[in-house]
Specification:
CATH class of the largest domain: Alpha Beta
Largest sheet: 3 strands, mixed
InterPro entries: CBS_dom (IPR000644), CBS_dom_sf (IPR046342), Diverse_CBS-Domain (IPR051257)
Organism: Micromonospora orduensis
CATH architecture of the largest domain: Roll
Distance between the termini: 20 Å
Order of helices and strands: HHEHEEHH
Number of domains: 2
Keywords: CBS domain
Pfam families: CBS (PF00571)
Strand content: 15-25%
Number of helices: 5
CATH superfamily of the largest domain: CBS-domain
Protein name: CBS domain-containing protein
Structural class: alpha+beta
Length: about 90
C-alpha cells in the first residue's frame, strides 16, 4: 500500500520528479491483507508481524476497505494498541 508519506519520503525528499516515478518503483515488500471477518486480535497480530500501520480488508477477492492503527486504537484498550505501535516502530 502506498501512502502520501511514501511519496514525500521516497520521491520529494530525494529530489525526484513525481511525474517520472511509478507506483511500481515505490512498492516494496509482500502484499498483506486482512479478512473482513477477522477479529481485532488478528488485526493486531498481522500489523505487528508485518510492521504495517494499514491493512487492506478483503472479502473473498473484493477490497471492501482499509483498517488503520487509528481505527484499532479507537476500539481497543490502550495496552494492546501501545504494544502494537511499539512493535511497528521497531524497524530492524
Amino acid at each position: 500500500m502506498l501512502t502520501d508519506r511514501d511519496i514525500v519520503v521516497k520521491v520529494l525528499a530525494e529530489g525526484r520528479d513525481p511525474a517520472n516515478v511509478t507506483a511500481g518503483e515505490l512498492a516494496q515488500g509482500e502484499v498483506v491483507t486482512i479478512g473482513a471477518d477477522d477479529d481485532a486480535a488478528e488485526i493486531l497480530r498481522t500489523m505487528g508481524q508485518y510492521k504495517v500501520r494499514r491493512l487492506p480488508v478483503i472479502d473473498g477477492q473484493e477490497l471492501v476497505g482499509i483498517v488503520a492503527v487509528a481505527d484499532v486504537a479507537r476500539s481497543l484498550p490502550e495496552r494492546p494498541v501501545g504494544d502494537l505501535i511499539e512493535a511497528i516502530s521497531e524497524r530492524g
